[in-house]
């Protein structure tokens, strides 16, 4: 199976990159499963129903979220009717939406998409380790589904590393989001799970993690409140990770970073043409 | 000028990679300046005089530190007699050692090496932005020195991004350390400063950021104290960044990630042979 | 019912105050229920079986804990055989010990003692609000027990305030611990629950929250590691809260701070003689 | 000298208590110096020029601030023309306003009022210990002024304890603010400085630290964003500390908590009538 995961789409610039690139990638690479993190898609914070639909229409099978999941308050409502929008599974019971989506692919195969939030340097949510165990035991890779993709929305590399190892052999891909900077530690772990600490954002990197740089720099230096943060408006780099899995096991056999456009050095998988 | 920066050397595994690779790299690439972060070189926390001397002997011109700078208490003493060991400049006045080193290179040129700590999600130190301004104004690139290398030891990508932009055009290289995971956002910023949010560690990546994975995973899951953290003992990946500067300006013209050995996908500069 | 809660016993000085005062208070005030927080009783961090037994022998019906619960590693073992030692209930399932103890009082009545940890500015544990709901629904005040005492081991006053309001009318006493400084907001909440944001420690207040002040002050100023923290050795103030409940409802009718000995201004309930 | 310090005035409820009580207290107790923390005076966050003037007109000689200092953006401007409004001294150089005010009292004596912010569990500012040293060395108690009052706006009791000890003998009063809950550790330290870890807020205590309790409780439980925080509207408790100093030394001889009105148990100094 061919899987593409795309990191935090940041504002208008990020959405433009999705619209311009994702349909082509989907068809050119014959992708089976595309997951996009959309927690910053609407003006840099949260997601609206229109934007969620646009990302799905551009070629995503599922959209994941993070700490900004509900910053656009309408997401608390429309998430109920959008089964392909996945919020962190470790929100407390009763939170609108779902933390796991079992997605039917074009050919009848099924992929489990999970989103979870870390707790180191982040708000307190339920235990991500226990929550992931529950979801994966309920729908084991190779038995109940053909792929498991886990978006670990977290700050600390230690927590992401730990989750990767814990799930190794039981997920097709464990990929981090939230720091908005792609890491270069993509690899297949010993047990067969593709791993990358952060997919990076899909946004303008001439910025402070996607935000127009002037105000955050001013705040770092002056330490006083000021104007609102605005997404940087320059061309985005679409950032993510490409994974090829073994159809018999659902585990990863090949992995490569994806970086298209914008300011970062380009990267494409050499195993798809 | 040819510059190599190597990220956090982690314990015995990291030291072995330095000993095995650095002398060769130094001569093969005709490096002019080599800086190595050594905050985890001694058993994963801190640095001893013997280990510092070993890293310098292997080909480093300067060794930088971070939040673990003084975990080996002897560093509070020997740092006074080791002018090539640089601790974060934003420790309070009176802290042993120095946050800036002006290093004489083999050919008489001089490089300013700075080490600074971020404050987001980290212990409170003095203002890194103000401290960097002071040091760089005191020894401007192109006027008082031929290269400026800044090791930003910090957790948050936002703070690292901001420091990169603030110093753009005034440093040869701004590179992050501390997360122990290399980022893939290496580039030359618009003003001519090479930038990478994190160099990554030089250690065994089959681990939790360099620590033998069993105990940190147990703590994440069980939340109770247990045994000591031990550095993972498998083969290390030497991680860092290669920068070629313009000799007239001291600014960067080429930049590439470096990853040699161990578990990560290899990366070498294609502009040096 | 007459209830005394005593805050974090800090090292030898705190234990001496317990030994000297608690037996007298128990008999003089004809106390029905005494709960003591013992998370710092052993050398300032954790508790041993001997020390736990000493506190129980001095007149406590139950001993509660906090973030230092297992700093003396033997507590991971002996807590299994000590039903009156209560650790935070929001440790993950499988943690040794219990977060709730149903204590049989001398006259056959029963008291539910709960210990929970906050998550603001503290390590990530399970949801304290959900955990408290579960325990209190399982053993409701006035139906299944005659008193409910909740030790909220937390840093942030906001979280403690919120827990107090949520449990108002369902607990006899909600009292905070962990900051080691007594608050002056003791009162009966509108629904009948006695509340105080922090009981204060039972330790030497000529200190930095019970620690010999020299080293913590040095670290605040110099920001470098140094010698171990040692409990301050001067005379302790026994700090806590006295509550009189209505025997029919188990809710509070009178509340007063208790401060005996040491450096703080003395306080005793005027409703017991 | 007779000094009254009043803690964080919270919204309309807190302002009403100031207007109703402070003029009477000032005359009844023949107060020489009144300092009021006003960081939450305007709708719970920040302060406006009108509100600052009202607090001064009600009997304050100086108004101190904290992390909410500039939440009402106009404070960045009018603080320049209001010498009795004091913001934390450890904002970076160039921040509008001042961190120290030398206030002329009615009888010609002079009081130094300092405001500083802690760094534990708070935003990164400059070193509070170094900043306080500078200010106090520039205007020593007994030599250049007749009283020194320090408002330590901080979360952690450890940091407040440490600052108290460091300034003991060099300040008339070191009092904490920010947690919005009064502590009961008021005392004269061995060197003669009056100390209290937190003055408490002047606001409605039937709340979550002054905020109408419904929304903060909902957020603690549900972890999703919701409506704005609004100050609780019930009757406020005016909270603070009363200090009598020795006119020859400026050091404290008597200290007592002050709690008037609202939900908390009342407290008044017994040494003034
Ligand atoms: Fe994001
Ligand atoms: Fe995020
Ligand atoms: Fe490190
Ligand atoms: Fe570090
Ligand atoms: Fe404690
Ligand atoms: Fe504690
Ligand atoms: Fe406040
Ligand atoms: Fe505050």
Automatic annotation (TrEMBL), chains A, B, C, D:
Domain of life: Bacteria
Keyword Metal-binding: yes
Gene3D superfamilies reported for this sequence: 3.60.21.10
Active site, UniProt feature: 68 (proton donor)
Keyword terms of this UniProt record: Metal-binding
Binding site for Fe cation 1: 8, 39-40, 180
Protein name from the UniProt record: TIGR00282 family metallophosphoesterase
Organism from which the protein derives: Lichenibacterium ramalinae
Classification lineage: Bacteria, Pseudomonadati, Pseudomonadota, Alphaproteobacteria, Hyphomicrobiales
